[in-house]
Design goal:
The complex is a heterodimer of chains A (178) and B (186). Chain A is of the alpha/beta class. Chain A is built from eight helices and six strands, in the order H-E-H-E-H-E-H-H-E-H-H-E-H-E. In chain B, 44% of the residues lie in helices and 18% in strands. Classes of the chains: A alpha/beta (178), B alpha/beta (186). Chains A and B meet through helix 3 and helix 5 of A and helix 3, helix 5 and helix 9 of B.
Amino acid sequence: MAVAATSGGDTSGTLNGAGIIAAIKASGVEFILSVPDIVTSSGLLAPIARDKELRLIRVCKEDECIGIASGLSYCNKRALILIQHTGLLDSLNAIRGIAVEYNQPICMMVGLLQHDPDFAPRASPRYGVRIVEPILDDMGIAHQLISVDADVAKIQPAIDTAYRDSRPVAFLVARSPA
Amino acid sequence: MMKRDECFRVLSRHIISEAVVATYSSAMDWVEIAPRVLNYTSIGAMGLDSSHGLGLALGRPDKRVVVLQGDGSLLMNLGSLVTIAEVAPKNLVHFVAQNRTYEANGGHPIPNPQVDFASMARAAGYAAVYEFSDLGIFAQQVAHALEQDGPVFVTLHIVPSKLLIYDYSSLYDPKKRAAFKTAWQS
């Protein structure tokens, strides 16, 4: 299974939340499933909560999102899961069973909590951040680093591919979108 | 106290075009009693049956979804009661078969076997909540429960059943998932 290459170590970039939301909408996503994540809180979740074109489902625990997104996919409805990486780690069994073993198009946007974008995630001083990409690689889950505005262009094609091929994808948000 | 398979036989008389989401012991009993293309038994992780059901209900508000969850499964996803109540899908009916054991994992007791799921669902904000421990009364009232605007929660107080043989390869058959998807979208 091909795994997307990632970039990292960008020291001067900016990341615009409105651009990410536009890319999410352009991908045909109707539902956002979320537990709040401080990395994406003000730049993504807050404007999404006000956005009438997206339906925000607030859940209590991140693995609920995996089941809800799976159910929606059987209805041909696209969803994006917006969580932080601690929630991703907490949901690994659900991701293993539903996204990987059942080949479901589970699309996740994951804030890297306390990550310093001066580092590539694999080189992060934070253990919890450092292990995210290797875990996704071991699980065969495609992932894209979203660190600067140029990365936003990766979102729509990756979501389209996830739903076309019925397989998961993770976007790792390396800095707080403005 | 009732038996799960007896409850499901009664329930099956009222199931027509609904998706039925079920796992483990509930799934084994249900697919034997009511083999049908709109059974959804690929849950992937214990406890997520209620979340799959919510996704199905959100995606097809014109159809009804019935979740058949065990008490051990619901304990693993108690937060889903609050999530479902907040989303408030009118087309979701959520059953929990309370036998007070992790039946599929050796019959060990759940923590606090007397836990009151119906009160939890009521407090979470479900639109209607029922409890049954008598099969005759369940048979009288199940149609009413299924017709209510949801989310509806139903506790079935049951005895642990005989040892089941769990045919997971059948429950998780990819062909059944594909057939469900086609039927559910029609």
